[in-house]
Every structure is written in C-alpha cells, then in structure tokens.
Amino acid sequence: MSSENYMVQLKNVNKWYGNFHVLKNVNLNVKKGERIVICGPSGSGKSTTIRCINRLEEHHQGEIIVNGITLNNDLKNIESIRRDVGMVFQHFNLFPHLTVLENCCLAPIWVKKVPRREAEATAMRYLEKVKIPDQAKKFPGQLSGGQQQRVAIARALCMNPDVMLFDEPTSALDPEMVKEVLDTMISLAETGMTMLCVTHEMGFAKSVADRVIFMDGGQIVEENEPNEFFNNPQNERTQLFLSQILNH
Amino acid sequence: MPDWLQLMIDSFPSLLYAGLVFTIPLTLLSFVLGLSLGFVTALTRLYAPLPLVALARFYVWLFRGTPLLVQLFLIFYGLPKVGIVFDPFPAALIGFTLNVGAYSSEIVRAVIESVSRGQWEAAYSIGMSWSQAMRRIILPQATRIAVPPLSNTFIALVKDTSLAAVLTVPELFQAAQRIASTTYEPLVMYTEAALLYLLFSTVLSWGQTRLEQHYGRHATHLGGQS
Fold first, then answer.
1. What is the ipTM of this complex?
2. Which CATH code, of 3.30.70.270, 1.10.3720.10, 3.40.47.10, 1.10.510.10, is assigned to B3-225?
3. Nearest chain A Cα to B117, which residue?
4. 0.90 cut: is pTM over it?
5. Subcellular localization, per the record (chain B) (predicted)?
6. CB spacing of A75 vs B129 below 8 angstroms
7. Considering only A238-247, B77-86, B176-185, which range has the smallest mean pLDDT?
C-alpha cells in the first residue's frame, strides 16, 4: 500500500523524559477511515503516542506523517497539522469563560477565518449531532461531565478534522455518563472518521475498532483485529492486562 | 457652625481640585503605564530568552526591594546630579509607574501561570497559535483572577500618590499640608485629606466589585473543570 493512503504514520518514534525512555521504536500506520483503539497499563506511553501526533508532545527520533505532511519543528507546519487533527481530552478542557457555542466557533472564526454566522451554523449542526443544541448558550461549568465531553467532541469536529484523537475520553466521567459519550463516539465512527482512541472501554473496542493496539513499557506489544485480540491474545503481558480489566 | 466644620467646607474646593487635577490623573496614568510595564515584564520573565529574564528579575528585585520614597527622591533630586532633570509631575509619574510595574508583574505572572496547561493544549489542538491562545483563552481567564490583587495595587497607589507631595507636586495631600500650615489646623486638614482618600478608594472598590461580577459571570459552577 502506498503511503498516500495512510492518514497517520509513525516510523520508529522514540521519546525520552529526561533519562526515561517513554516511547521505544513505535511504528504505526493508520489508514483513512480506520478506527484504532490503544490500550495498556498506565505509564505505557499510549497517551504520549497520540499526543505526539498533534505535537502536544515532541518526539525525539523517528518520523510522524499526518495526511502526507511530515511533522517538523516549524510552527507553521505544526499549526497546519493541528488544524487537521481534532483532539478530545480526558478532562474535556473546554474554555470556561466562553459559552458552549463560542467554544465551538472560536477556532473556525480565528484560525480558519470562517464568517461568524457560518461558523455558528456549523457549530449548531455539530451540537445537534452530539445531542445538546439546547445547551448552546450555557457556560461549560453549568453542564454535566458527559455533556461537557460531548461539547468537546463537537468543538473538535467544527474544525472539520481528518483525524480525531481521543485521550481517555471517558476516564473522568461518572459511570452513568460514560454511555452517552461512547454513543457519540460510535456514531462518529459510523461517519467514516479516522479515529485513534486511547481507552479502556473494551465494549467500545469490540464494537467499533478495526484494530486494537496494546502498549506496555513504551512499546507496541501486540496489535490485532478485536476478535482475535480479545479471544486469542498472543503476548503474555496482553493476556495479563486483559485478565485484569475484564475479570473485575 | 463650629470653626472646624467651616474650615473643612472652605478648604474643600482646594482639596477636591488638587485631588481631581493631580491625585486621580497621577493614579490612573501611572497605573495604566505601570500595568503595561508589568505585563511586558511578566511575559519577559515567562517566555523570553535567559538574558532578558535576568534583566526583568533584576528590575523587579530592585523596585520591590527599595522604598518608594527613596525611589522618588532618587529620580527627582538625585538624577539632576547626572544631568537628568524632570519636572515634579513627570518625576512622580515615572517613579510610580516603575513601582507599579514591578509589583503588578508578579501578579500578572502568577495569574497567567494559574490557568491550567489543559487550556493551552485545547487551544493548540484546535490549531490556534501562541498569540491567539494567549489573547482569546489564557488572558480572559487570567484577568478574572487578577482583578482582586490588581485592585489592591491600585488602591495602594491612590494612597501612595500622597508621597508626590515631597516632590512638590500640588496634589491632595500637599494642598492639605499648605492649608494646615497657614491655619494651624493640622487635625482638621489631615482628617479632611484622609476622608477624601477614603472616598476615592471606596469608589474604586466599587469598581472592583463590578469588574469581578463582569468577569465572574461564567464562574457560577466551575465543578468538573480542570
């Protein structure tokens, strides 16, 4: 397969925090429209991996290619990649001083120079998709966690990204709110969006993922399609991890 | 009518004039200029290359570590010895600006740093540049936190401008001093001056409350925000 068909490519990516080798030769190719779930114990480098893709973290060796553009140290290059890559954070990171609608319109207006009215129409369309158009005039602090996370998804979608990164999007939510966020992610997956999700929601992985990746100690230890991954894990560490999170 | 009340009423126009023409303009001008200087100093300390950071730290250290009165004397009485001469009002303005700049830079630095890293990351993740993130995301949130401490600086400044009297600036306190020395009524005149300062700072505190309400309108339920 030629590299043009890959949306995201990581080639021998290495990263250190001081002396700590946090990513070790990570190789990952993500095709357009592919849904990837990354799991693994805490400290395994899974969040760091996806945070390198939009340069919230800098990698020290290797190559990261997003949508045909190789990530380098040039700010213009970084900002152009970030415009094409949406991200959803564990703690939502909505802008508390702006309303839900303003949260969604800000980047289209100031980064993409979309006229305000058009940006607001787009934002309302996405707020309807995540099923909270009626909260548009509220501030984030007035919403529940699940609602805030759905706003965060809408905010990312308003930039019309080619890839969406999810960094443990349900980990900070109360249990009863996990489902509404997962449902939103599932319907997003059905639109053909390329998605990389760091999550421990194995139900989500089984029903949506094309591939599940298991990381441990900064390395990709195992990757497979969900059925094989869950029913027939090859690596000892994967088996241990799965037994811990599935049988509790 | 008792004599003291008559004196207060008679002298009130002079004191109010001195307050409105010298004290308030000196306060407002040196606060605006000082805050701008403080903002630049804070950004320098947070984001500039090391030599500039050292320069900014030196400035803050110098002006926070020496008495305001000594700074004013150096500017007005000291600098003429090396050929730098200022009129009283500009000398006072420079002194207060440098002083406010040093104190407010620490406030600005602290409030910018108090906005969580996640806000920067969210702004970057939707393609914003550093300056867009600073202007649209970080500063509006930092401003809300900065209102109470900056109001402190401002109210302190209103009162500190009375030090300009020693540079012969005919501001409120100097007007009171002048009348007190001709009428031999220091108790009455300095009480009147104190009441006027109290009035000025009270009005400014109302301004602070209004500003806090304005910037705090989103802060009703911040639970769940990081």
1. 0.94
2. 1.10.3720.10
3. A93
4. no
5. Cell inner membrane; Cell membrane
6. yes
7. A238-247
